[in-house]
Amino acid sequence: MLLARVLGGRPGPDARPARDLVWDSRAVEPGAAFVALPGTRTHGEAYAEDALARGAALVIGPQARDRGLQVDDPYRALLRLGRWLRTGFPGVVAGVSGSVGKTSTKEALARALDWPATEGNLNTPPALTRFFWHLSPDAEGAVVELGIDRPGEMDELLELTAPDLGVLTAIAPVHLEGLGSLEAVAREKLKLLAASPLRLAHVDLRHWGLPEGTRTYGFDPAANFAGEALELGCAETRFRYAGRTLRLGVLGRGAALAALAALAAAELLGRDVRVAAERLEALKPAPGRLEPLRAGGTLWLNDSYNASPKAVEAALEVLARCPGPRGVVLGTMRELGPEAERWHLEAAERVMATADRALFVGEFAAAMAAGRPGATAAASVEEASERLPDWSRGLASVLVKGSRALALERLLEGIRA
What we know:
The protein is of the alpha/beta class.
């Protein structure tokens, strides 16, 4: 059995060849291999029988079973499998990481180069291993997103993906609970560039000491790949690159930087930049990322996909160009560590400098609203939903932003209907 040889495991007598790889028993379909990974609360072994009942071809885990592949450490086995699959892929692999903007940049690269890419923000070792499992060897290249929230995780991802091109978008205060400090974030993220033969980073990251040979992009004349004449509208985004004006249907500085990174990557890889630009102009707003919705005379900007201090600042830059009066619904920004309240109070200041009204949601809402005329606090999304109709009355433009865990898009369900 090939899988047993790759993983160094001990197959049971009834183990079958697998055509998919999953680690959530609820996602098992007949013929899939179920990897029993250790979790924070329970081990995947607790769900092995459920996976088999759903038709799993075999269970990869520490226990011996007839329809199984016994391995000592399922997580390390998964990394080994991912690396083996990656080694067998002959195309170019571009790896994208950063505190903010990595998913948008990954999708821009995939569109500009016409390469397959990991879905959404699936950027962990299990998701990447499954991506390489299904990746066609005939693809010219592939784009993968690398997400980390603890020390050492980038080393695992680089061992698995071995990127030919590394793209680093930003270093910002995100995942501080696991990484501890901004310096630690930088140390982990910069490993991507050090491990990649071709290196591309946002020009603002120069002060972090970029590895030798790193090329930069940005709306700065000092960048190796410099965009010009950036216009951040409420309906479209424009900028010039290599003598061409791009008109993007996606909004915000982050979207413009993602497109610029994709054009720079195309140049680095020797691809036709004109063709890449044409593909980028066909991009549409992704759900939850400055996605415009119109209802009852109000423009709603659904930016509920995620939130960090830097991302809030970028979203407000777009809102400032939209018709007034303006409102902001801002939910809790997660994983900011012991100084989370300070970051939220600073964000509240920025919000009130742009908006006529604010509805702050979550654990820091009361402190954010205190003493600020036009600011309202809601302890939960449910409370915010009750307040929203009266609060938003008369507003021409409203930005809705918060960390993914809050699912603030629930506030917009009535508007979408």
